[in-house]
Amino acid sequence: MRWHEHRYPVQIVRRVDVAALAAVDAKTLAEADEAGYLAGNGMFQDLSGCSWEEARTAVAGERDLITRLEAAGDLEAEAQAIEDERLAAFDDPDTLWNLDVGVIGAAIVLSALGAAPVASCNAGGFGGHHQASHPYVAFYLPVSLAAEVLALAEAARVGLAVDSDGLARLYADRDLGPPKFSELAVAGREGTR
Question: How many CB atoms lie under 10 A from the CB of residue 23?
Answer without folding.
Answer: 11
